[in-house]
């Protein structure tokens, strides 16, 4: 049976629809690849942003060396699509070691730990897992304290392990998302580099072999002046960017590749607001940076001109309803720029891939969960 024909233009798409601007996506992928080359690091992009083998292959075609994933399901889905070198960049879930081992028997799966308990469990498994040690470079989420004894003890134990393969030190500069202005980003990027390279140097001087240093967030990569001493970077969001990245100064509005097409479905006489068909299950409820004008999604006034509306934005979201800050006629179609493109993409089953206003493809989103 032939698959149903694609709608051929933007105007024919049913709403809410997740739109992917292919020209912008390709430009973002090329630019970050070029930036990584200039900074002298390998690129291992985080695919949790897009969960799309098509985009992963585009990144590989631009020189990405391996990928980063955030769940075992994502890892398995990408492995099924031929990706064979994956870092699962959250501290390993001890109850899922058998699943991890089954996957690691068919692809190179690199795990992450930040505790002695996890190290013991990996040793006890008897399987020669590849393992990164996660270090806290200032985000204060996961990772060992780079100044603490645990960092040196775990690195030494990993390096000396007769079975496990120590991949090196890994971090994520999530604190970049808390930068109060774009001026702060270069300092955060440098903090990430310095914390990691200083720890690597200290360990090496103590005789611990540290094979590699892995860092990465989109805002830090946009601002880093030097990555000397770093081996690889793992940005993810840069493929799409979003309103948070615009506010942070990592990109311009015209660099944002992902939008949600929605329709006004209600606007009562005399009301000072309208309701669209894109709610929290189309945009996520990420509050963004809550800057000058708190927003749950920005509305394009002119997409081609990369201009956002000054007066209309999303101010409320329930499951399938979005509240607009101004009245608009029922039936009006709007293009919305989400606060957080990774969460927005994870709300949909697929991308409508566009060149201009032409629909050129439909790409699935592998958002499997157990
Ligand atoms: N590495 C890890 C461990 C992460 O958690 C993330 C994102 O959350 C990334 C890399 C990619 O960062 P970004 O989305 O800022 O590009």
Mean pLDDT across all amino acids: 96
Strand content: 15-25%
Over the alpha carbons, how many angstroms does the gyration radius reach? Answer: 22 Å
Uncertain regions spanning at least 5 consecutive residues: none
| Count of DSSP-assigned helices | 11
| Chemical compounds bound to the protein | pyridoxal-5'-phosphate
Q: Quick one: how many beta strands?
A: 17
* Main sheet summary: 8 strands, parallel
Written as H for each helix and E for each strand, in order along the chain, the element string is EHEHEHEHEHEHEHEHEHEEHEEEEHEE
What kind of assembly state do the chains in view correspond to? single chain
Whole-Å distance between the termini?
A: 30 Å
> Looking at the structure, what is the overall shape?
globular
In percent, how helical is the residue content? Answer: 25-40%
Structural class: alpha/beta
Order the strands across the largest sheet as they lie in space. 2-9-8-7-6-5-4-3
